Amino acid sequence: MTVRTTLMKMYYLFSSGFLTIGIPTVRRPRSDMNYLVETVDSLLENMNDDDKKRVTIIIMAADNNVTYNADVAEKLFLRYKGHFNSGLIRVIQTNSTMYPNLDTVKKTYKDDKPRLKWRAKQNIDFAYMMLYSRNISTFYIQIEDDLMTATDFVSEIEKFELEMTKSNPKWFLLEFSHLGFIGKFFHSSDLDFVAKQLLHRYDDRPCDLQLGVIRIIKGQEKPIHSKTSLFQHIGWFSSLEGKVMPLLDDKFKDKTKMETYFIENALKGDNPPGHVFTNMVAATTLRQPIHAYDGNLSTYFWATTPKPNQSFVWVFNKPHNFSRIVSETGSIDTRKDIIGSGEFEYSSGPTLLTNGVAQCVNKSYKKMTQYMSGSMDTLAMATQVPTNVRCLRLIIRRRSKTWLIIRDLQVFFA
Predict the structure, then answer these.
(1) DSSP string, 178-237
(2) Is residue 340 within 8 Å of residue 400, measured between CB atoms?
(3) Strand partners, 386
(4) Which pLDDT score, from 0 to 100, does residue 305 have?
(5) Which 3 state secondary structure label does DSSP give 231?
(6) Which of 158, 280, 290, 313 is spaced 20 to 30 Å from 129 by Cα?
(7) Nearest 5°: phi and psi at 209?
(8) Under a CB-based contact definition with an 8 Å cutoff, are residues 235 and 258 in contact?
(9) Using 50, 70 and 90 to split pLDDT, how confident is the model at 189?
(10) Apex CA 58: angle with CA 133 and CA 127, to 5°?
(11) Which of 385, 319, 375 is CA-nearest to residue 342?
């Protein structure tokens, strides 16, 4: 029996239990990273044997490339064969005939065409995910394919559901994350309604905004969040070309585990010798400018509230050709003190000696890109890196309301 034949048999196994976990997944452009395995591993590691008997994980491979979808399904089956055989994990796939012409989506929220098509398809994907999952378990929760789970998350979900059902029996939606469409928890009996709403207005607005409207239609005026979040976003590359996803949930239950993960999995660049300069004011003697380029991923520079036109500069001992540049700001666990309105610039131009160290002339700087949610990654953002780079500069454009943490700069040789 082939792997594909076995997978097809597993698609239609009926199971019942407490919870179905839905995970739509698509390929991420410009990256060979696949967070899906990390996500599934985290789910399995934080479920006990009893949980695994009452939970069904549905993974929907929804990329436009059917070969990619089949490859994802096969790799998952080979890795988790025992869990497929037990019915814990299933994989389903979409194909192009299931979608309308997304080139005709209407323009809303001033989004460009690629983003309009991306979010419209996402709404349709989520609807199909729910329609497939509606008769499997008592409850359904949707997550994303790039996250870590909290310890004992199933029992935490069950405990909160029982509390809410006792105090507010007419609840429609419970939320176990503050980010996007992660951790959205429904009665499975409501999935048909939610899916139809998403399909009816698939090109009207993003899925998370749609969900707020749907919740109010169903009579729940305000969001109901668990005290702590049970899912933490870990993905960097978005499935939308040119977009990074550095968002973190500061209510996550296992913050220590999260910090360890990000330090252990942080990028480690080639980082040639150089110097750093800034006219920002250090918030403490323990967090100095050099800590933003010292090769130690647990250190950082911390500045008091930066002012417009203040900057942080990295000067290399000689010009270099880089293939990728990554700059991150803000704390790992809370995402506080990120850069608000800032640009990332480069200079390949002339230098002047200042106290015996070369610095690039101010007028020689040119804009390379800008920060998104406190982060910048030329590869993920589809930004071309210039040649012969001698200096890099983070520059503040508008007055900030918070202090600023510059965690590190990572540069990679071409």
Answers:
(1) SSTTTTEEEEGGGHHHHHHHHHHTTTTS-HHHHHHHHHHHTT--S--B-SSBSEEE---B
(2) yes
(3) none
(4) 95
(5) strand
(6) 158
(7) -75, -35
(8) no
(9) very high
(10) 45
(11) 375
* Banded pLDDT at 296 (limits 50, 70, 90): confident
Alpha-helical runs (H) found in 97-140: 113-133
Q: Return the pLDDT at 3.
A: 45
222 vs 331, which has greater pLDDT?
A: 222
Region for 304 from its dihedrals, namely left if φ exceeds 0, alpha if ψ lies in -120 to 50, beta otherwise? beta
Alpha-carbon separation of residue 316 from 193, 322, 346 (angstroms): 58, 12, 11
Give me the phi and psi of 392, to 5 degrees please.
Answer: -125, 145
Partners of 276 in the β-ladder: 314
Question: Length of the chain, please?
Answer: 414
- The DSSP code for 383 is P
- How many Å apart are CA 146 and CA 23, to the nearest integer? 9
pLDDT digits (tens, 9 = 90+) for 346-381: 999 888 887 777 889 989 999 999 888 788 889 878
Which of the 8 DSSP states describes residue 138? S
Determine if the pTM surpasses 0.70: yes
Residue with tokens 């452009």: 29
* CA separation, residue 58 to residues 4, 82, 149, 202 (Å): 16, 15, 16, 22
Distance of CA 222 to the CA centre of its chain: 25
Question: In which element (H, E) is residue 358 found?
Answer: strand 357-360
Residue 321's CB is within 10 A of a number of other CB atoms, namely 11
Residue type, 275: H
pLDDT digits (tens, 9 = 90+) for 28-84: 775 555 789 999 999 999 999 999 999 999 999 999 899 999 999 999 999 999 999
Whether 126 contacts 26, CB under 8 Å: no
Burial track 171-201 (b if 16+ CB lie within 10 A, e otherwise): bbbbbbbbbbbbbbbbbbebbebbbebbbee
Whole-angstrom Cα distance, residue 229 to residue 23?
18
Q: At what angle do helices 113-133 and 207-217 cross, to 10 degrees?
A: 50
Cβ neighbours around 315 below 10 Å, total = 19
